[in-house]
């Protein structure tokens, strides 16, 4: 379910002010309570995950997404994200902080190349993700990646960002969704680059993202298996979708009376149809013999 300051399909109309106002309170209890409210609203709409919080940096006051992000300060952004995620995931609603990473503008963000040195990347733009996704911090179990490139490489297709930094250094153990991967001008968001880099799912409204042509490619098939593993692990261990399910749970197919009736009628119809076809064939053969 989309956010970040309200549940998009909310049944009660609950909306919160922008994240910058939350951060300006410097009140961790209040920010945690905001996460709790959003989690309950999400569950009420029968979803088990939200694309929240937004944790990019306010690089300029004029950015079109500043209302989705906390601050120009990486520490304040990181701590606010951690507290909100704790409130969300306490109810087994999976948090998907966004947009990983360097997404600091809205206009022309599709494919824009963001150029920065490693010191700026680590001290400013990547720092909040340690608080949001670190196993001893917010420990978010999902992430939404970004439209932009880091230099010339799409962020979700960067092995250095997705696997080496996010998974290996920060310790993120969940799965990664792309942002909309078949919007106009997103042809550069290569599924092949993404799956090999460690991205798991594509936010798509119908475009064919099949890997069938790579079914004999060991590298791609292994990456696909790992993506499925990460998705299943996160959902089974951290999602409200599994509430009431334990290791001893067994699923047994139960048929209602009308289902038995339909099955019986279908079987009788099949027998009568086969008999009719047989009689028709016999009639034709008899005519030919005569």
Explain this structure.
The protein has 290 residues and is mainly α. The protein folds into two domains: 19-242, TIM Barrel; 252-290. It has nine helices and eight strands. It has helices at residues 19-24, 28-44, 74-89, 118-125, 127-133, 159-169, 191-197, 218-238, 257-289, and strands at 49-50, 94-95, 113-114, 142-144, 149-150, 153-154, 175-180, 201-203. Strand 5 (149-150) and strand 6 form a beta hairpin. Helix 2 crosses helix 3 (74-89) and helix 7 packs across helix 8 (218-238). It is elongated and about 95 Å long. The N and C termini lie far apart (72 Å). The relative contact order is 0.09. The model has no long low-confidence stretch (mean pLDDT 92).
Structural class: mainly alpha
| CATH secondary-structure class of the largest domain | Alpha Beta
Structural shape: elongated
Report the major sheet. 3 strands, mixed
Low-confidence stretches: none
- Indicate the radius of gyration in whole angstroms: 25 Å
Estimate the mean pLDDT confidence.
92
How many strand segments?
A: 8
Number of self-contained structural domains:
2
| Number of discrete helical segments | 9
